[in-house]
Amino acid sequence: MVSLNRQWGATPQLRAPNPYRSPEIDRRAGESRARIRVLIVEDEYFVATAAEAALVDAGYHVVDMAATADEAVALAERLRPDIVLMDIRLRAERDGIDAASAIRERFGIPTLFATAHGDSNTRRLGEAARPIGWLFKPYTPTQVVAAVQIAVRRMRG
Questions:
Q1: pTM of the prediction?
Q2: Are 88 and 117 in contact (CB under 8 A)?
Q3: Whole-angstrom distance, CA of residue 151 vs CA of residue 112
Q4: What average pLDDT score do residues 29-52 get?
């Protein structure tokens, strides 16, 4: 897995296969999840890379990571992921709700919101973007994978 992110200036990293997983588990996970392409939008570098690692280990394909709403929309247009894991509070002028709305309206790509702000006002504002689900921070690697699995099931109907 090559992780790219121009915003943070990170160099591409190659991820080695998990030596504790059997090839059979990886093969089965890959069959069910390899076609699911995920774009991660998170302005905290370590949170983004931890989510990436968890999803890749679970057999998902992380197409890229973005740190701003504008970068997220541009990447969604170019890469056409199946789902976007989107932080709501980003350190730029536009927030994740704006980006999620634009991505859904322009490309029909659903968003799974990840946020530390689960208050009713944030949820009310976020619902305008018609998210496929919510993941509350702090979350564990297991929780991010489970949230994406549930979101994918909802997408497939």
A1: 0.80
A2: yes
A3: 7
A4: 85
